[in-house]
Amino acid sequence: MTDGQFQPIAECGVTTQTQAAGYHRQWLVANDSGQWLNRELCPRLAEVSVELRLGYLVLKAPGMLRMDIPLDVIEDDDSVRYSMLVGDQTIDVVDEGELAAAWISNFVQVPCRIMKVHPDTPVSAWPA
After folding, report:
1. What does the domain layout of the chain look like in residue ranges?
2. pLDDT value at position 44?
3. What's the count of helices (H) and strands (E) in the chain, helices before strands?
4. E-strand spans in 5-127?
5. How far apart are CA 50 and CA 57, in angstroms?
6. Does the reported pTM lie above 0.85?
7. What is the SS3 assignment for 86?
8. Nearest 5°: phi and psi at 121?
9. Cα-flanking dihedrals φ and ψ of residue 88, to 5°?
10. What is the distance in angstroms between the CA of the first residue and the CA of the last residue of the chain?
């Protein structure tokens, strides 16, 4: 990535929208065992395009209807909050729900979920 490019969902497509700077890598994709998926493990993530529109993170992928995820909603229900490892760091994440999970799983052909990084435990350094 170069300056002026932002990746709201880690390892998915980039956007040059300036308002995306505050949402850079605020989401990630995890498999059923809670492992963070990168492009090496799941190459199709690169085909997911993202943009910010009217308070939503809008995901698009070939052959799929678009998926809209609210930008600034953090679910306060602890039943959807999990801890997981990103590199050497344990972070808290919030599951974006069944619809988002079905969408990303259907596209990448691997059972997985879209997780939002909880603001209390941001990722200090993403693995290369």
Report:
1. 18-117
2. 96
3. 1, 7
4. 27-31, 49-53, 56-60, 67-70, 81-86, 89-95, 112-117
5. 7
6. yes
7. strand
8. -135, 65
9. -100, 5
10. 12
